[in-house]
Amino acid sequence: MALRSGVDIDVVTGQPRETVEQTNRVRVRAQAEAHVHRGSRIRAALASPEGSVLQETIAQQLADRIDQLVRQDERCAVLLNLLSQWTHDLQVGRRMAIALMAELEE
Length: 106
Known about the structure:
Radius of gyration: 31 Å
Oligomer: single chain
Distance between the termini: 105 Å
Number of helices: 3
Structural class: mainly alpha
Strand content: under 5%
Largest sheet: none
Order of helices and strands: HHH
Helix content: over 70%
Shape: elongated
Number of strands: 0
């Protein structure tokens, strides 16, 4: 069986594979450049005073959503209770140490 030489054809488009690959490279490059341009515009907008408000709003909404998800998750609720208890215990211990130090200074 002899191999035939000829143009390598893309089975999807029916176009020469080299043409399809070149078109794809051009398309990918254009998409990347558009992405960079959009990112630059977004960064510039976020640097403005209005952008700061938007960032704070998004951050607050994210924090609210995380709090909501944590409250709905039993394991997270247990872990938060443990951390809260430990923090409270540490604060009590710190207050007691401060009080003892104050007594020693008197």
